[in-house]
Design brief:
single chain, mainly alpha, Amino acid/polyamine transporter I, 2 domains, three-stranded antiparallel beta sheet, two-stranded antiparallel ribbon, 5 strands, transmembrane helix, Amino acid transporter transmembrane domain-containing protein, AA_transpt_TM, membrane, transmembrane
Length: 497
């Protein structure tokens, strides 16, 4: 990686008891930043140390994205690494984990485990690259900002739209899962469209909380909620005599060490795993609101280790006890009564998951609209009107997506293939190559190995994008034609009761 830039700029001020915060930049990047963002390139600045936190001596935070942050507006730089880890966990565990037992059913134990571990390694690297790139380019807040640096204004718009569409689609998928939960708990007491609207409204209320620092407590709620639901599912699956989808009379649970799926089914299963790890777009926002971005890598390693262990345990245990009778989402696999219990436990977590993605999508548009305006970080009427309007619009579009593709696994695989691979694998691999092409370490064995690794990751992402999107479209089209699923904007019960 490039060596830290050790020079100082005219932004330095007199200090008493202080230390210096520096960003690793080379001269080429320093010149570029100075030209593109005059007055926003605080390469170094003095800070006081208070309770282990870096606080600028003037009592204000000067940020390349948010400008000057003080008591006159929300603090967009107030996230510690532990709370960052929790948010990283919650942006992933939720809808994704509920599709993993079906992945093992499609691929078999060994291939399924290998796919989960390989994609965990690839996307963990992508998540780390987000932090490296942010430190090298302080003005970056979203992946669209990174695209602007590498590809210019056109690239920013293309990648920005793909990023925004992905997080809105995932928020929409959470509305769909919330409707399944309400239908299960209430035994379809209302039209499914009504439950989707209820989910969207609840998510919009929580997503309107302005900063990730204030919203991070919801991450704990969501994490405990989803974990308690999947643990209950695993215990119930081990104790029950009959999975909920098992036929009347005698039946046999079949699990396979290695299955022989069709190409379309196999790629769809891989796309669901990509979706399960598709929290990477949110990680830009998380590192962008951390007090100390240098702590970001620690948060990623902790979060990805925990999430992978959870995915493997939940997927393997549930598939072992339920076999081919796995439901979609998986919470409905262990019997009617247990299904109500697990969905009741999971409902807060499903809401929090949707909240984080809706918040991220809305924050992207909000920053784009008000960037370089005093309204971005000040409590003005314009600030609030724009923010609440964008949150409402985001949830409205998520609702339309949820109702247009109203079946869970197929929606997950489509999002994972079409958007997840581009935003979570290909972009980050290219970001590392772009940032390190002229690195002082160029030509060393470490540089060569990392370059080859990122090229391979980029190629894998390209394959999954094309093949996965094709497979998802084929399956969705077949489902609509066969009539095995309800149509768009249908009141039909989607809980499988």
């Amino acid at each position: 990686m490039e060596q830290p830039y050790s020079g100082t700029t005219s932004h330095s001020t007199d200090i008493e008891s202080s230390t210096t915060q520096s960003y690793p930049l080379n001269d080429r990047k320093l010149d570029k930043l100075s030209q593109e963002h005059p007055g926003q390139t605080e390469i170094t600045h003095p800070v006081d140390i208070e309770n282990g936190n870096a606080i600028p001596k003037d009592g204000k935070i000067h940020d390349a994205v948010w400008g000057t942050i003080d008591e006159d507006g929300p603090n967009y730089r107030n996230l510690g690494w532990v709370r960052a880890s929790v948010l990283e966990l919650k942006t992933q565990i939720g809808l994704g984990v509920l599709g993993l037992p079906a992945v093992l059913d499609t691929l078999g134990f060994i291939p399924g485990i290998i796919v989960i571990i390989v994609l965990a390694v690839i996307i963990t690297w992508s998540d780390l690259v987000v932090g490296y790139f942010k430190i090298n380019h302080p003005e970056v807040y979203t992946i669209a900002d990174a695209a602007h640096i590498m590809f210019g204004p056109i690239g920013r718009e293309i990648i920005g739209f793909a990023f925004w569409l992905e997080v809105v689609a995932i928020a929409g998928a959470s509305f769909l899962s919330i409707s399944v939960a309400f239908n299960t708990i209430t035994e379809h007491a209302a039209c499914t469209v009504v439950w989707v609207v209820v989910g969207a409204v609840i998510v919009a209320v929580f997503a309107s909380i302005q900063t990730l620092g204030k919203i991070s407590w919801l991450g704990w709620v969501g994490l405990v909620s989803i974990l308690s639901a999947v643990i209950t599912l695993m215990i119930a699956a081990g104790l029950t005599d009959r999975p909920s989808l098992a036929p009347p009379g005698d039946f046999e649970i079949i699990t396979q060490v290695a299955a022989t799926p069709s190409f379309v089914d196999a790629i769809n299963a891989v796309s669901i795993v990509v979706f399960a790890y598709a929290g990477t777009p949110n990680f830009f926002n998380i590192v962008g609101e951390m007090r100390d971005p240098a702590q970001y890598s620690k948060s990623v390693v902790a979060a990805q280790t925990i999430i992978t262990a959870i995915y493997l345990i939940v997927g393997c245990v549930t598939y072992h006890f339920v076999g081919q009778y796995i439901a979609s989402p998986a919470l409905g696999s262990a019997g009617f009564t247990v299904k109500k219990v697990t969905y009741g436990l999971a409902l807060p977590g499903l809401i929090v998951g949707g909240t984080l993605y809706a918040h991220t999508a809305a924050k992207y548009v909000f920053v784009r609209v008000l960037r370089k305006s005093r309204h971005l970080s000040k409590n003005t009427p314009v600030h609030y009107i724009v923010w609440y309007a964008i949150v409402g619009l985001t949830c409205g579009i998520g609702f339309i997506i949820a109702e247009a593709i109203p079946f869970f696994n197929d929606l997950l695989s489509l999002i994972g293939a079409l958007l997840g691979t581009l935003i979570c694998i290909q972009m980050e691999a290219y970001m590392w190559m772009w940032d390190n092409w002229r690195s002082p370490e160029r030509g060393s064995m470490k540089w060569k190995l990392l370059m080859v690794m990122n090229i391979c990751f980029f190629i894998i992402g390209c394959f999954l994008l094309v093949a996965g999107t094709y497979a998802a479209v084929v399956v969705i089209n077949d489902n609509f034609k066969s009539g095995t699923v309800g149509g768009s904007f249908s009141c039909a019960d989607n809980s499988g009761n």
